[in-house]
Structure formats: structure tokens, C-alpha cells
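hiii so um. not sure if this is the right channel but i have a protein structure encoded as C-alpha cells and i wanna go backwards to a sequence. like what aa goes where. can anyone help
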């Protein structure tokens, strides 16, 4: 073989070995890049999962806070309405003895027979006061003839019932009971039949 042929063979062998090395390097590079991509994907996946968990946590906190605020708003509105309904309760309770005095005065007029003009004037004042208080939510309890109920009545005394059907029922009312917007502000003081 001539030197040229030897160089060609050597050169070809060198080229083959370079191609093989390049193939090996490129396959190694491909594997490394695949590994790097998988690593990047797994890191990105972990990051996405972390961000999703944080999002879920923040969203849950937001929903809870919104719910608490909504409950607070409803509760304060309800309390405000109740306060408005019962804001005048003290004044109305203080005026109940005046209503009692009017009742006694009207009964005295019936028994002792005052002149009609005095009676009409007293009834007019009583009706005006009672109408004003009724518009604020005051209602008298009608207790005579009803079953004695400790939720509404306070027993002052017990007397023998005038008839068998009045046993355990209210026979007489000593002091009227009143409700303000459905809430008891004064129990009726009653006499029950036994």
C-alpha cells in the first residue's frame, strides 16, 4: 500500500471515529437535554402545584372572610332594627302608669257620674295618648277569661272560681300587661280562679 492509501484509510478511520464520537456526544447531549427538560418540567410542575396550593389557601381565606363579613353585616342590621323597634321602650314603660291612671279615671267617671264634657275630654286625651303609643308598637294584653300563663301573667292572688269552666283561668286583672312589638314589657298582674 502506498502512503496515500494509508493516509486515506487513516483519514477515513479518523472520520468514522469522529462521526461515532459525534454520534455518542450528540446522543449524550440529547439524553442530557432530555434529562434537563424533564428536570425543568418537574420543577415547573412542582412550582405550579405550589402556586395552586397557595391559590387554594388564599381563595379559602377570602371565602371565609367574606362569609364572616356577610354574617357580621346581617347581624348588625338585625341588631339595628331591633334597637330602632325598642329604642322608645324606656319612655313607653314610663308612660304605662299614666295609661293606668287614665283607666282608673275613666272607671271613676263611670261610677260617680261626672258631667259629659269632662268625660269626653278625658276620653279624647286617653285615646290620643293610646293611639300614639299603639303606633309605636304598644299592645295591651287581653287576659280575662284566658288560661293562666306564666309567660304572660303574674298571679297576685287565687280566689274560688265563679264557675267550673273558670278554674285555672284569669278571673280579674289588677294591672294590665303590655307588649311592645310582640315583646312583653310588663306582665299582667291577675287574679286566678281555683
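sure thing!! here u go:
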Amino acid at each position: 500500500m502506498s502512503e496515500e492509501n494509508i493516509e486515506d484509510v487513516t483519514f477515513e478511520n479518523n472520520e468514522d471515529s469522529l462521526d461515532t464520537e459525534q454520534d455518542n456526544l450528540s446522543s449524550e447531549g440529547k439524553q442530557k437535554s432530555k434529562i434537563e427538560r424533564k428536570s425543568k418540567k418537574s420543577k415547573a410542575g412542582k412550582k405550579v402545584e405550589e402556586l395552586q396550593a397557595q391559590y387554594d389557601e388564599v381563595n379559602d381565606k377570602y371565602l371565609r372572610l367574606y362569609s364572616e363579613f356577610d354574617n357580621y353585616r346581617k347581624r348588625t342590621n338585625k341588631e339595628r332594627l331591633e334597637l330602632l323597634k325598642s329604642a322608645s321602650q324606656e319612655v313607653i314603660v314610663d308612660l304605662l302608669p299614666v295609661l293606668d291612671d287614665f283607666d282608673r279615671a275613666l272607671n271613676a267617671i263611670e261610677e260617680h257620674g261626672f258631667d259629659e264634657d269632662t268625660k269626653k275630654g278625658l276620653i279624647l286625651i286617653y285615646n290620643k295618648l293610646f293611639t300614639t303609643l299603639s303606633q309605636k308598637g304598644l299592645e295591651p294584653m287581653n287576659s280575662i277569661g284566658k288560661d293562666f300563663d306564666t309567660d304572660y301573667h303574674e298571679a297576685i292572688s287565687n280566689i274560688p272560681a265563679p264557675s267550673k269552666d273558670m278554674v285555672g283561668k284569669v278571673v280579674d286583672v289588677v294591672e294590665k300587661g303590655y307588649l311592645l312589638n310582640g315583646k312583653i314589657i310588663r306582665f299582667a298582674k291577675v287574679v286566678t280562679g281555683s
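oh and The first helix runs from residue 3 to 86.
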